[in-house]
Write a structure and sequence with these properties.
It contains one helix and 26 strands. With 319 residues, it is mainly beta. The protein folds into two domains: 180 residues, Jelly Rolls (Sandwich); 110 residues, Sandwich (Immunoglobulin-like), CATH 2.60.40.
Length: 319
């Protein structure tokens, strides 16, 4: 199947329209009464991969989706831009714990450079929304993404990495009813802004003031900087910090999925956020500046344990 496409599922699921993927399992069943597709996702990172041509520069993807069932009060689902490598490598823009979370993912699904921004207060059983992303890649390799809900802008994001994407629908332990799926080119975005180190021009009319010690001591970021890639830009490097999050057990520690923050120890500025892998407990903050001392904090969102802190950390070289 090639772009563009616009499927309402009025008579069923077209042959070859999509396939199950990711690291979990899922089923897609046509609901004749609703003239829609019921997608049932296991409690793992599962994808319904739209079998369309991969997009390398400029595209949009839209879904009219209804939340039917969720094991938690804060459903977990959204968009996954898969690059075709491994089970999950690509970018994820998903509703997680009541917020939209945008992150880069490696082949096993581990998040890096996670950005939690707009609230997803509306996400609950019975909610139905038309969600759309417009995506465009700049000449410098920065992917710009605009998220819209029911035709209204929700947030804009920017991130590097990966050459092309295949749009997918992500779910974790949730049942959603897909009333429509569509995609096409071009996107509604203009040219993605170039990343400049010493520019003071606005991006979408927005600027931020960078803290005096926002990066290593040898840098001096006192001016106004471009919004695109702010945190990643100041802390970018070729090093990483890795670890695991486990719950204490009687026989052995049990790996768990928990939110982990990477913090600049000097300024207490949150550099990045990630979720540890549910199967292994592993997390990683990659491509970070080695000249900064970091603090890593892991939080138990279920409220059973207090946060765990590791300070005075230095990043190690990446392979």
């Amino acid at each position: 199947m090639a772009y563009p496409f616009n499927e309402t599922f009025a008579t069923g699921i077209p042959a070859g329209f999509a396939t199950a993927g990711g690291s979990g399992s899922m089923t897609a069943t046509w609901n004749a009464t609703a003239q829609a597709v019921d997608l049932v996702f296991s409690q793992a990172s599962a994808l319904w991969q739209i079998t369309a041509a991969t997009q390398s520069s400029d595209f949009w993807f839209e879904m009219d989706v209804e939340i039917i069932a969720s094991p938690t009060s804060t459903p977990r689902f959204g968009f996954w831009l898969w690059d075709g490598m491994g089970a999950l490598e690509g970018h994820a823009l998903i509703v997680w714990e009541g917020f939209w979370d945008y992150s880069a993912r490696n082949a096993s699904g581990t998040a890096s450079e996670s950005e939690t921004r707009p609230s997803a207060w509306w996400a609950g059983v019975g909610a139905r929304r038309t969600l759309r992303i417009d995506v465009k890649k700049s000449a410098q390799g920065i992917w710009s993404t605009l998220l819209q809900m029911d035709g209204e802008p929700v947030g804009g994001f920017g991130k590097r990495y990966y050459a092309s994407f295949l749009p997918c629908i992500f779910g974790w332990g949730i049942t959603v009813r897909l009333h429509r799926a569509a995609g096409g080119t071009p996107s509604a975005l203009g040219d993605a802004p170039l990343l400049q180190r010493r520019a003071a021009r606005s991006v979408v009319g927005r600027r931020i003031l960078v803290p005096e010690h926002a990066a290593a001591l040898k840098f001096n970021h006192r001016g106004l900087r471009l919004l695109t890639g702010t945190r990643s830009h100041y802390y970018h490097g070729r090093h990483r910090i890795r670890g695991t999050v486990k719950e204490k057990g009687l026989q052995a520690d049990v790996p768990v999925s928990r939110r982990v923050l990477l913090i600049d120890e000097r300024t207490w500025f949150v550099v990045r956020a990630a979720w540890s892998d549910a199967a292994t407990g592993a997390y990683a903050f990659e491509r970070i500046n080695p000249d900064i001392r970091y603090v890593v904090m892991a939080f138990d969102h279920q409220g059973n344990y207090r946060a765990v802190v590791a300070d005075n950390l230095h990043a190690e070289p990446m392979p």
